User: What shape does this take?
Amino acid sequence: MTDRVACSFCNQITCGGLRIHGEVICPTCEERLARLGVDDEDYNQWIAALRTLWAKWLKET
Ligand SMILES: [Zn+2]
Assistant: This one.
């Protein structure tokens, strides 16, 4: 069964990405997040995206 879902960060359709609480993170974003550093230009964007997800997860628990 192929399960095609959109990545929660980049909206790319991905198969078998990492799933956390129903949100999907594609391999590209997962790797990007793993390498994310505070000096990165897009650091704040990533943190903002993560905060949005965290807020959702907190509501669910
Ligand atoms: Zn992605």
